[in-house]
Design brief:
Strand content of chain A: 15-25%
Number of strands of chain B: 4
Largest sheet of chain A: 6 strands, mixed
CATH topology of chain B: ABC transporter involved in vitamin B12 uptake, BtuC
Shape of chain A: globular
Distance between the termini of chain A: 44 Å
Order of helices and strands of chain B: HHHHHHHEEEHHHHEHHHH
Structural class of chain B: mainly alpha
Number of helices of chain B: 15
Helix content of chain B: over 70%
Number of domains of chain B: 1
CATH topology of the largest domain in chain A: Rossmann fold
Radius of gyration of chain A: 19 Å
Largest sheet of chain B: 2 strands, antiparallel
CATH architecture of chain B: Orthogonal Bundle
Number of helices of chain A: 10
Largest interface: A-B, 41 and 30 residues
Helix content of chain A: 25-40%
Number of domains of chain A: 2
CATH superfamily of the largest domain in chain A: P-loop containing nucleotide triphosphate hydrolases
CATH class of chain B: Mainly Alpha
Order of helices and strands of chain A: EEEHEEHEHHHHEHEHEEHH
Strand order of the largest sheet of chain A: 6-7-8-3-9-10
CATH class of the largest domain in chain A: Alpha Beta
Oligomer: heterodimer
Strand order of the largest sheet of chain B: 1-4
Distance between the termini of chain B: 27 Å
């Protein structure tokens, strides 16, 4: 598995620095959390990693591949998947089609195969359906398989969002506040899923989350952002003692 | 376990391939195939006058065109107000072949299916080219870009001598296994040809919609940011949607030209583009069955209003001008009423009817 490195990334929106000289070193196979108060630049960081924003200066590298100027679909093909903070599902389709869309790149039949629905198209569709069913099983979405996504409850939609990112078969998954707005049971479920993503599916996880309790419990490594600047990183124990972090969250005495 | 393939109840699937089928029950399959058989059989039983057959044929041509429009506007969500121009591209491709090879060249008279297919491909290329702004533009701005293609098309045809400056460019009568299709059988013959094209297009669209090449269209409609994150290029997908629309439109155009034995600009005007859009909306955007209902409904309405305005003209004085205003008036009214009361179109009534009969005789 490859390492994601962020070197001196600065992101500027017309005079406003969303990120200033941020350095990160995402170790493969671990859960890395990015935390910080509102407007700290967490989602901007994730957008840079997934190609929706391009950093003004600095560099992002996945293994030896430069990501700085890549577009989202190029980054996806490298094995980096992303779940959105505000649910961005294909709301008119059912769960199954949403997940099959994530297999888009793996469905390697030609246009004419599709036009005439040849044996090859049918076989490839069935194979990928099998993969999708694996993810549905993993994320416990069996009951919602044929439901239209727009009609599902918020918590389930969030789960479909994570499932869709997993269906891409990534090595690294970016989760943007997967637990925001959930009740305690849904949160516990989601934590269990994130732990399983790391352990069973052997996937690196980058987690942006506001719930510090959860972050401290499950993270292997934490980066703290405040006003676009990195103010601390380390293990949860180190972060809990870091004075700049405490200051950013609670304020000065 | 005994398998039941006739009813939806007890029809259990044990492989993924079983669930891919277009017809999930035998009743579905039987219904559709007998409907298609009936469509092929009825003109043989009931003798229609040439005039009525022409009306039906032009509905069928519009169906093929609206299938194309539904690909781009219905499934991919990109408003195209230049669809008649794409149909025109197909018609003028066939007409140009006739003009450059001579009107009775063997390819045009004997290999006409190839001419129709070729016109479709030319339509696809032009469609893809016109769709290029979709890489950057969205919503209303894209609609204006397609409108500009409509304008460019009309002006090009009107001012270039190559296209006979918009005057009709002739096309020959075609040959079938029984020999030359004569005047008496012309519309009768084309009914079967266009129906065959519709049946094939219908199945092709259903096939596309259950593969990645159809799902990607809905993906860019619903959320093109997420589509990007799913690893597809949203820009190219939109261009592809336009190419697909151009393909069906091109075929429709070539058939239109053969049917009317010529191509003239008045059939491919902006007004016709809006008509296609109205057909797609009334039929139901983003549905295959809507592409069949929409053209039929609009053409039928058009005929009725024509009769009505002729009748109104006899009782009202010509100074009132009501008779001429009646047609655009009802046309606009129908679209507005559909958008307010049934935005999902006639296809939704069809869906409701189907689900009623699925449960019959029970209510739920």
């Amino acid at each position: 598995m490859k390492k994601l490195t962020v070197t001196d990334v600065t992101l500027t929106f017309g005079g406003l620095n969303a990120l200033t000289n941020v350095n990160m070193d995402i170790q493969p196979g671990l859960i890395t959390s990015v935390i910080g108060p509102n407007g700290a630049g967490k989602t901007s960081m994730l957008n840079c990693m997934s190609g929706f924003y391009h950093p003004t200066t600095g560099e992002l590298k996945y293994g030896d591949t430069r990501l700085t100027a890549s577009s989202p679909h190029e980054i996806t093909s490298l094995g980096i998947a992303r779940a959105f903070q505000n649910i961005e599902l294909f709301s008119g389709m059912n769960v199954l089609d949403n997940l099959m869309l994530a297999r888009h790149r793996m469905l390697d039949y030609s246009f004419l195969d599709a036009f005439f629905y040849t044996k090859k198209a049918s076989r490839v569709e069935a194979e990928n359906r099998d993969y999708v069913e694996g993810v549905i099983d993993f994320m416990e979405l069996e009951a919602y398989r044929k439901s239209t996504v727009g009609n599902l409850s918020y918590g389930v939609q969030k789960r479909v969002e994570v499932a869709r990112a997993l269906t891409l078969g990534p090595e690294l998954i970016l989760l943007d506040e997967p637990m925001a707005g959930m009740n305690i049971e849904e949160k516990e479920d989601m934590v269990r899923f994130i732990m399983d993503i790391k352990q069973e599916r052997n996937t690196t996880v980058i987690l942006v989350e506001h719930d510090l309790g959860v972050v401290m419990d499950i993270s292997d490594q934490i980066y703290v952002l405040d006003f676009g600047e990195l103010i601390g990183h380390g293990t949860p124990e180190e972060i809990a003692k870091n004075e700049r972090v405490i200051e950013a969250y609670i304020g000065e005495e | 376990m005994a398998t039941n393939r006739w009813l939806a109840t007890g029809n259990f699937f044990s492989t993924y391939k079983e669930e891919q089928r277009i017809f999930l029950t035998n009743i579905d399959r039987l219904t559709i195939w007998s409907l298609i058989a009936a469509l092929y059989a009825w003109p043989l039983i009931f003798q229609m006058s040439n005039k009525n057959m022409l009306v039906i044929d032009s509905i069928l041509v519009a169906v093929v065109a609206v299938i194309g429009l539904n690909m781009v506007t219905g499934f991919a969500g990109l408003i195209s107000i230049g669809h008649a121009a794409f149909v025109g591209v197909g018609a003028y491709t066939a007409a140009l072949l006739a003009a450059s090879w001579g009107e009775s060249h063997a390819i045009l008279t004997h290999a006409w299916p190839l001419v129709i297919l070729f016109s479709g491909l030319v339509g696809a290329v032009i469609g893809g080219f016109v769709g290029l702004p979709a890489m950057r533009l969205k919503h209303l701005y894209l609609a204006i870009a397609t409108l500009s293609f409509q304008m460019i098309f009309t002006w090009t045809i009107n001012f270039m001598t190559l296209f006979n400056q918009g005057q009709t460019m002739p096309l020959p009568r075609v040959f079938w296994l029984t020999g030359k299709v004569v005047r008496k059988d012309h519309y009768f013959f084309w009914y079967f040809v266009i129906l065959t094209v519709i049946v094939m297009s219908g199945f092709a669209v259903r096939n596309l919609m259950r593969t990645r090449y159809g799902r990607c269209l809905i993906a860019v409609r619903d959320n093109d940011r997420a589509a990007d994150a799913m690893g597809m290029h949203p820009g190219f997908t939109k261009v592809y949607a336009f190419a697909l629309a151009g393909f069906f439109a091109g075929m429709a155009g070539a058939m239109h030209a053969y049917l009317f034995r010529g191509a003239g600009i008045e059939s491919f005007s902006l007004h016709q583009s809006i008509s296609y859009l109205a057909m797609a909306i009334v039929g139901g955007l983003g549905t295959l069955s809507g592409s069949f209902f929409g053209p039929a409904a609009i053409q039928f309405l058009d005929l009725q209003v024509e009769n009505l305005s002729a009748w109104a003209g006899t009782i009202l004085g010509s100074s009132m001008n009501l008779a001429t205003a009646l047609r655009p008036l009802t046309f606009g009214l129908v679209i507005v009423l559909f958008l307010i009361f049934e935005p999902r179109g006639i296809a939704n009534w069809w869906r409701i009817t189907r689900s009623y009969f699925k449960l019959w005789p029970f209510r739920y």
